[in-house]
Amino acid sequence: MRDPRLQTLAKNIIGYSLDVQSGEKVLVEMIGSEREFVVCLVEEIYARGGQPYIELTDPSVRSAMLQSATKEQIEHWAEMDLKRMKDMSCYIGVRAGENVSEMSDVPEAQMKLYDMYYRKPVHMEQRVKKTRWVVMRYPNASMAQLANMSTTKFEDFYFSVCNLDYAKMSLAMDPLQALMNRTDRVRIISPGTDISFSIKDIGSVKCCGRRNIPDGEVYTAPIRDSINGTITYNTPSVHSGVTFENISFRFENGKIVEATSSDTRRINEVLDTDDGARHIGEFSIGFNPHILTPMKDTLFDEKIDGSLHFTPGQAYEQADNGNRSAIHWDLVLIQRPEYGGGEIYFDDVLIRKDGRFVIPELEGLNPEHLK
């Protein structure tokens, strides 16, 4: 007997998020040991007339592979997988690994090769831009531990978040998207943060269960050279298996000219991957009412109620400032009072204070209206 919650989630992903049509090819990549959910996805793809293709990935094996992989080997690997990705209509990435730090002992130089010569062409350039895609996590014991919950309690939390009424949320996002589209100047103030930039004419995108599960954000991008000031993030973030805390960036004319963290040397190595890694490719406001605390998982943390993220690296073409990079690192600042509070101004008008929207047209995005 399959878990009905998994069946509901699979149905939502295949029917709502991806809207799989008859004859379409769907690549499902399961990163970890979970199998029941893969079966649910396969059944739903067939029910819609689609064609499922399955990739089962073990993070520990990938870590071993990357330890000594050459540039030529990674390029050949990317060539094979890029050919497959080009043949797909849809992609589903499910992360169910048992150890979030599995890749932490891969040398940074090797991770740069992977980011530049595999992840960038296969995922950033082809999958993100040219397929319909969803990426998500799976509720296992490892993830529950990161959230400081029992496995059973975390599963209940997970399904309440992931099976949210995203169509309802989408309607509530419309006024924020419209406001972003007509805004020029943005200023963000929080403890250790005072940063200003322009988003004029960049456009914005609603994220309402079509690409990420869970979801709940509207994003744009700053004009590349318009950023000045300092931002200090208050949410830990895992990059290539390494946890970074107390991250702070100082900007001059759009470029990160000073970066510090709990591992200042390593964060600067990441930012030196390429020129675009020291510029910002995304600014987004998060408001999922069920996600309140960080769990060192970007898919959840970037949607935290009362949060924003300010992302070094690649911009999305749907809201494009021209920044290109092998990196796209969503770093999160929570502005609710228990995290120090903060304010967001659009064209000198306060739109959100201490994590709550304060102008009438945006009040529908406050948590009591979305649950």
TrEMBL record:
Key words, A-Z: Aminopeptidase, Hydrolase, Metal-binding, Metalloprotease, Protease
Cofactor(s) needed for function: Zn(2+); Co(2+); Mg(2+)
One Pfam family matching this protein: Peptidase_M29
InterPro entries to which the protein is assigned, alphabetical: M29_Exopeptidase, M29_N-terminal, Peptidase_M29
Matching Gene3D superfamilies: Thermophilic metalloprotease (M29)
GO molecular function annotations of the record: aminopeptidase activity
Keyword Metal-binding annotated: yes
Membership in a protein family: Belongs to the peptidase M29 family.
Descriptive protein name: Aminopeptidase
Provenance organism: Paenibacillus radicis
